[in-house]
Amino acid sequence: MRASFVSSEVVNGLRRNVSMTIAMILTTAVSLTLLGGGLIVVRKVDQAQESLRNAADVVVYMNENVSANDPECANDPCAGLRSELEQASGVQSVQYLNRQAIFDRATEEFSNQPQLQELVRPKALPAALWVELGDNVTPQAVKKQFEGRAGIGSINDQSQFVRNMVNKLNDVRDGTFLIAALQAFAALLLISNTIQLSAFNRRTETGIMRLVGASRWYTQLPFLLEAMVSGIIGSVAATGLLMVLKEAFLDGLMKPLTNANLLTAVSYADVAFVAPILVLVASAISGLTGYLTLRLYVRI
Amino acid sequence: MIRLEHVSKTYKTLARPALDDVSVSVDKGEFVFLIGPSGSGKSTFLQLLLREEVPTRGRVIVADWNVAKLPRRRVPKLRQRVGCVFQDFRLLNNKTVFGNVAFALEVIGKPRHTIRKVVPEVLQLVGLDGKADRMPVELSGGEQQRVAIARAFVNRPLVLMCDEPTGNLDPDTSQDIMLLLERINRTGTTLVMATHDHSIVDSMRRRVVELSHGQVIRDDARGVYGVGR
Ligand SMILES: Nc1ncnc2c1ncn2[C@@H]1O[C@H](COP(=O)(O)OP(=O)(O)O)[C@@H](O)[C@H]1O
Ligand SMILES: [Mg+2]
């Protein structure tokens, strides 16, 4: 097969219907950007679940009585609960944070959000026993064991919050995948259309090729490559778009979550991770669409 | 070289068959005219040989190929050995004379050095030496048809089939084209030519197969166009 022949045919084909080619590339790019976004969410959720497993803390908040009157956790029920927690299986450490310590922690956490900081008053906050768990016990087990005991206000299982967030992120992922699929369908139709148009424009050449005995493969390859090249250009554009989106929106949007150490920020490593997937998906889908179109609609 | 055995071809859109129980056999090196009025089935006959169409009934044999039964991926091999020329030349207007002929070899993967050697040879054979760099629009109709013949012949086919090759040409030019086709036939290439040009058929005195409504009504070894005309 002569590479120069094939490549010049591909370039000519793409140039001949510029507007269709652009539409095809843009639609493919948008679809792939959404797919890439969804894939990044999947990756982030995986990482969040990982960090959840690593740092599975349970916070046992004291009731108002203990919070107000026992800043050192020197008396029962606080002291009793502490020693009981310390001896519970799977517990690695228990730390008592009194009202002031909780306040300091909250102020630090909201340091970049002055409005929230205003809302936090030491008087409103309960003291807490901060329980760090090992690998062989779940936060839910601890919660179950101690829930309703005297002196305890509420038990905050950190994992609950993360789980809610993961659920939200999964909804976002499903949404992006759905729109990506719709866009991909539009891209398929455009690719199919462009190839039919391209084959129609080149019917004299392909007619001659058929008559002089060029193989089907040789005749079709320029069209297939034409589809695949625009697919790949689309995937490169999608990667660029993802980077722009990361800089322009995502980083700001995710700041609260990343500051709270619940999620790691979307990094260029994440984009780099999905980019080759996008290229592969784009070439596979455009190649397959091209192949089927030629088989079904175009006599070559 | 070519054998049609009880071949019928009915197009879906047509009630009566385009070819109706046709049996014809052509030996290697023969020159055969396929004549008959428009719509009598001449083009259909040729398209069956090329596997552009498949017969509804009967067998078509070209060289050693059972054409209708040929698997799809082997069809290109058949077409590489069966050249064809049409009334409308079918040249690529964006390629030179050389480029048009070379195209037929490029797309079947022939190496560049072979192309550089055989294309000038065949251009000389068809009488176009010195015009290799012309564009098709700069040529007369007769010259364009010579390019088409060169392209069909450059890969040395076993059979050359021509569908009304002189249909767009004036009588003098037609005679020149016929001389060229005779020359190609003398190299041992089997030649089948569909035409309804009386004077050409009458002057050549070759085998004539006449079709009418898809049936063979005459097969003369040294015929003229119309008996009693
Ligand atoms: N592709 C086709 N589809 C339907 N009918 C066709 C097709 N090709 C030819 N025919 C019909 O078959 C008959 C024979 O046509 P053709 O072989 O072209 O005759 P000729 O070449 O002698 O003029 C005509 O009636 C024509 O209309
Ligand atoms: Mg005809």
Topology at a glance:
The complex is a heterodimer of chains A (300) and B (229).
Chain A: H1 3-16, H2 18-54, E1 57-62, H3 64-69, H4 78-87, E2 91-97, H5 99-109, H6 114-119, E3 128-133, H7 139-146, E4 152-157, H8 158-201, H9 203-211, H10 216-253, H11 255-259, H12 268-297
Antiparallel strand pairs in A: 1-3, 1-4, 2-3
Chain B: E1 2-9, E2 19-26, E3 31-35, H1 42-50, E4 57-62, E5 65-66, H2 75-81, E6 82-86, H3 97-106, H4 112-125, H5 141-153, E7 159-163, H6 171-186, E8 190-195, H7 198-204, E9 207-212, E10 215-220
Parallel strand pairs in B: 3-8, 3-9, 6-7, 7-8
Antiparallel strand pairs in B: 1-2, 1-4, 4-5, 9-10
Bound molecules: adenosine-5'-diphosphate and magnesium ion.
Pfam families (chain A): FtsX, FtsX_ECD
Transmembrane segments (chain A): 21-42, 221-245, 265-294
Subcellular location (chain A): Cell membrane
What report would you give on this structure?
Chain B: It is found in: Cell membrane. Chain B: Residues 2-227 form the ABC transporter domain. Chain B: One of its GO terms (cellular component) is plasma membrane. Chain B: Keywords: ATP-binding, Cell cycle, Cell division, Cell membrane, Membrane, Nucleotide-binding. Chain B: Belongs to the ABC transporter superfamily. Chain A: InterPro entries: ABC3_permease_C (IPR003838), FtsX (IPR004513), FtsX_actino (IPR047929), FtsX_ECD (IPR040690). The complex is a heterodimer of chains A (300) and B (229). Chain A is α+β, with helices and mostly antiparallel strands and 300 residues long. Chain A has two domains: 3-52 and 163-297, no CATH class; 58-133, 2-Layer Sandwich (Alpha-Beta Plaits), CATH 3.30.70.3040. Chain A contains twelve helices and four strands; from the N terminus they run ααβααβααβαβααααα. Chain A has helices at residues 3-16, 18-54, 64-69, 78-87, 99-109, 114-119, 139-146, 158-201, 203-211, 216-253, 255-259, 268-297; strands at 57-62, 91-97, 128-133, 152-157. Chain A has a four-stranded antiparallel sheet. The two termini of chain A are 18 Å apart. The model of chain A has no long low-confidence stretch (mean pLDDT 80). Chain B is α/β, with parallel strands linked by helices. Chain B has a domain at 2-91 and 157-220: 3-Layer(aba) Sandwich (Rossmann fold), CATH 3.40.50.300. Chain B is built from seven helices and ten strands. Chain B has a six-stranded mixed sheet, with helices on both faces. A four-stranded antiparallel sheet of chain B has the order 2-1-4-5, with helices on one face. In chain B, a hairpin with a 2-residue loop joins strand 9 (207-212) and strand 10 (215-220). In chain B, helix 3 packs across helix 4, helix 3 (97-106) runs parallel beside helix 5 and helix 5 (141-153) packs parallel to helix 6 (171-186). Chain B is globular. Classes of the chains: A alpha+beta (300), B alpha/beta (229). Chain A binds chain B through residues 1-2, 5, 204-205, 207-216, 218-219, and chain B through 50, 72-73, 75-81, 83-84, 90, 92, 103-104, 106-109, 112, 151-152, 155.
